[in-house]
């Protein structure tokens, strides 16, 4: 596309924003966010939204995270992201919200 992003990256960013809003509703304030989209994680770590549709969501994420006491972004290779893989392969017609919490 020439803009330095792909549509799946935008969907990853949308999912990240949704997840952050959800965990905020549950009262979590210290987060370790893992993702397998290297470009998105890198942009969030550097706090550098690009000037394209992906940047719109990254800007929203960065403005939202001020409510958290601590947040760290971790890139996890797709093969090592077993939770995301399991959630992505659930029944396609199950639209319920699922939250994975460790601890």
Automatic annotation (TrEMBL):
The keyword Transmembrane applies. The chain crosses the membrane at residues 54-76. GO terms for molecular function: nucleic acid binding; RNA-DNA hybrid ribonuclease activity. Keywords: Membrane, Transmembrane, Transmembrane helix. The keyword Transmembrane helix applies. InterPro entries: RNase_H-like_dom_plant, RNase_H-like_EbsB-rel, RNaseH-like_sf, RNaseH_domain, RNaseH_sf. Residues 5-89 form the RNase H type-1 domain. This is RNase H type-1 domain-containing protein. It comes from Opuntia streptacantha.
């Amino acid at each position: 596309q020439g803009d330095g992003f792909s549509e799946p990256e935008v969907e990853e960013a949308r999912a990240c924003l949704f997840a952050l809003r959800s965990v905020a509703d549950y009262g979590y304030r210290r987060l370790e966010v893992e993702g397998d989209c290297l470009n998105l994680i890198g942009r969030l770590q550097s706090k550098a939204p690009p000037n394209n549709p992906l940047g719109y969501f990254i800007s929203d994420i960065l403005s939202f995270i001020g409510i958290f006491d601590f947040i760290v972004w971790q890139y996890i290779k797709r093969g090592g992201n077993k939770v995301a893989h399991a959630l992505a392969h659930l029944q396609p017609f199950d639209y319920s919200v699922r939250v994975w919490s460790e601890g």
